Automatic annotation (TrEMBL):
The active site is at residue 430. The lineage of its organism: Bacteria, Pseudomonadati, Bacteroidota, Flavobacteriia, Flavobacteriales. This is Polyphosphate kinase. Residues 425-459 form the PLD phosphodiesterase domain. Belongs to the polyphosphate kinase 1 (PPK1) family. ATP binds at residues 47, 463, 559, 587.
Length: 683
């Protein structure tokens, strides 16, 4: 039996690799259409790149902390990085096996061939020569002879060739201009087969033209990942947005975190490259012949064979909103919920479009975390300003990798006359909220939109999210207080209905978990069901352990990483956790508390992570409408019953799939939810 002081937490960065392993499982699944398997390989690669740029770079920064302090804080960055690299190498080996032994042969069976330069026919060689002549201005070369000069700079996540010469101390660097020219080239062919080559091979086949007079001993592809953190001094005066905007070039100049190189590269060349780039052995990661598999998102399908892709799932038409001519009337009458990507993001855009032109609308307030490059959301806000509405837009300038786009839109809105507020130092605004104030019967009436996903029509097609339109007076009045905080009019918002981070969410969730513990000890009905992206907060986890020990049934659905160890005797034996990775990215958060039979159901933007509870503006909303609460609960229960794409999360992190019980039907929750919503909204 474990004692309270023995309570265990997983390391978040190690467990994250278990999540990426689930992505790799999807790439290996032969029942997944071929091009979708390629996309899962691309997702795996993209995830890993960001992981090294953000999480591994943070561990490297910890190594700079004084050893005595690291010891006191129980920080072991060196040990953790070594464990990470061991696991990543194993995953990359499996990645290569899936690609070479399963994906490539299957493509060939479908008449699609990847042709490498060694297999070029004379006709293809001539095609490659002509193509290279067209793009050669984009191809840059550097010859390095003095390894201590520090003149060699490799941009983050860009592809290069290291070119070796007979003089073993001299080498060349050639960029592969995929951003300007694309990654894949479709050969014209007189046969029925479709032949595709990498831009890498076209450059490689013609690389001798870049070094006239030199003999070439070898050509090996490399890629450097750099630290993604901006290290902005929050105490410096001036707009944080401006500081971020000016610092974005650090993205390409940050500290190296990983050099991925062709494992066929000779050892002496590895040493020369490492010395030139001033890298440690731990920074070197052997890989395959090609890197940047995230480019496979754009891998062409010249066959246009629908069997190679997921079957289309046309958006479910919302029973009320689809034909509503006035959203304010239907929302005033009853709350309305939408679920993406099963339903269209058009409903959100239409709401904003109506608000922009409605003469009774006086104010629009919105928080934007990530927005598409061009969107109806932003164009509607611009139109609202032109129509004389008071428009307040909170722009999160620190949304990682979207800073520039967010700030650009903020500037456009400011130029048109909107009130734009940028990020605060040391806190992010992660809530997905919108408030429209409309003059009705001589006073302002609020209409709110609260969601789990961003105001982004592109991501709404691949992220599973939930949202609520409501005119509930208590909710809209409390949401107004959230915006007053963002506008600097309030320091702490008063709220009895919404959970608002960093002010009340931690306390409210802690109180609700504690109430379930008390109920269980008193023999009352007690249970906690929670769905989220990640679970990391130590205090919440320890409360969940206490709940398990008290006999509370805890059912968790966590897509990404978790620091909680479920199913451990004497610690968490009443906690059962699964994770779903499937066609769409699970992104919604839903929290259900039994409360002795008087269930309380919440949803919103916050995970049970310390940053979401203490360092971000988040909004979690109750579901008061009985019909909508039942709909959310039905969706949650469908996911809990998934026996096709759900993996059991347990201490050994095997990622084993949930096994179907005898007589039980197949339940693939994303498809079941689609059919459920389709039936409900067409009946």
């Amino acid at each position: 039996m474990l004692k309270p002081e023995d309570k265990i937490l997983r390391h978040r960065d190690l467990n994250w690799l278990s999540f990426n392993e689930r992505v790799l499982q999807e790439a290996q699944d032969p029942t997944t259409p071929l091009y979708e398997r390629l996309k899962f390989l691309a997702i795996f690669s993209m995830n890993l790149d960001e992981y090294f740029r953000v999480r591994v770079s943070q561990l490297r920064q910890m190594k700079r902390v004084e050893k005595s302090i690291r010891k006191r804080l129980a920080l072991k960055p060196n040990k953790t990085v070594k464990e990470i690299l061991r696991e990543v190498r194993k995953q990359q080996e499996r990645f290569g096996e899936i690609y070479r032994e399963e994906i490539i042969p299957e493509l060939e069976r479908k008449g699609i061939y990847l042709v490498h330069k060694e297999a070029y026919t004379p006709l293809q060689e001539e095609f490659a020569r002509r193509y290279f002549q067209k793009i050669k201005d984009c191809v840059k070369t550097v010859v390095v002879e003095d390894h201590d000069e520090g003149d060699l700079f490799l941009e983050n996540n860009q592809l290069y060739f290291m070119v070796l010469f007979p003089d073993s101390e001299k080498f060349g660097i050639v960029n592969i201009p995929t951003e300007e020219c694309g990654r894949f080239i479709h050969f014209t062919s007189e046969t029925k087969a479709h032949e595709i080559t990498f831009l890498d091979d076209v450059v490689k086949a013609n690389i001798a033209h870049l070094f006239p007079g030199d003999d070439i001993d070898g050509i090996y592809e490399i890629k450097l990942s750099r630290d993604a953190e901006l290290y902005i001094d929050d105490e410096v005066d001036g707009l944080l947005a401006e500081k971020i905007y000016e610092s974005l070039n650090q993205r390409s100049e940050g500290q190296p975190t990983r050099l991925l190189y062709d494992s066929a590269m000779p050892v002496h060349a590895q040493k020369v490259l490492r010395k030139t780039l001033k890298l440690g052995k731990i920074d070197m990661m052997p890989g395959g012949r090609y890197h940047n598999f995230s480019d496979y998102f754009s891998f062409p399908d010249p066959s246009e064979n629908p069997e190679l892709h997921f079957e289309e799932m046309p958006a479910v038409k919302h029973a009320v909103l689809e034909n509503a001519t006035n959203y304010f009337d239907v929302i005033s009458e009853k709350d309305q919920a939408v679920h993406f990507p099963y339903m269209s993001f058009d409903y959100v855009e239409r709401f904003l479009q109506q608000a922009a032109v409605d003469e009774q609308v006086k104010e629009i307030k919105i928080s934007i975390y990530r927005v598409a490059d061009e969107s109806i959301v932003t164009s509607s806000l611009l139109k609202a300003v032109k129509n004389g509405k008071n428009v307040t837009v909170f722009i999160e300038a620190k949304a990682r990798f979207d800073e520039k786009n967010n700030i650009d839109w903020g500037r456009k809105l400011e130029d048109e006359g909107a009130k734009v507020i940028y990020s605060y130092p040391k806190i992010k605004v992660h809530s997905k909220i919108l408030l429209v104030n409309r003059e009705e019967e001589g006073k302002l009436k609020g209409y709110a939109y609260i969601g789990t996903g961003n105001f982004n029509s592109k991501t709404a097609r691949i992220y599973c999210d939930h949202a609520l339109f409501t005119a509930h007076e208590k909710i809209t009045s409390e949401l107004l207080r959230v915006f007053q905080v963002l506008e600097g009019e309030l320091i702490i918002p008063r709220a009895k209905h919404l959970l608002i981070s960093p002010f009340s969410t931690r306390k409210d969730f802690s109180d609700m978990i504690t109430r379930e513990i008390t109920n269980a000890k008193m023999g009352k009905k007690a249970g906690i069901t929670a769905k989220m992206n990640s679970l990391e907060d130590k205090e919440i986890i320890e409360l969940l352990y206490d709940a398990s020990e008290a006999g509370v049934s805890v059912r968790l659905l966590v897509r990404g990483f978790t620091c909680l160890l479920p199913g451990v005797k004497g610690l968490s034996e009443n906690i059962y956790m699964t994770s779903i990775v499937d066609r769409y990215l699970e992104h919604g958060r839903i929290y259900l508390f039994e409360n002795d039979g008087n269930e309380e159901l919440y949803f919103g933007s916050a995970d049970w992570m310390t940053r979401n509870l203490d360092r971000r503006i988040e909004v979690i909303a109750p579901l008061y409408d009985e019909d909508i609460a039942a709909e959310f609960k039905d969706i949650l229960e469908i996911q809990l019953r998934d026996n096709m794409k759900a993996r059991i999360q347990e201490p050994l992190e095997k990622n084993e799939f949930v096994q179907k019980k005898r007589g039980e039907k197949d339940i693939r929750s994303q498809y079941e939810i689609y059919n459920y919503l389709k039936q409900k909204h067409t009946s």
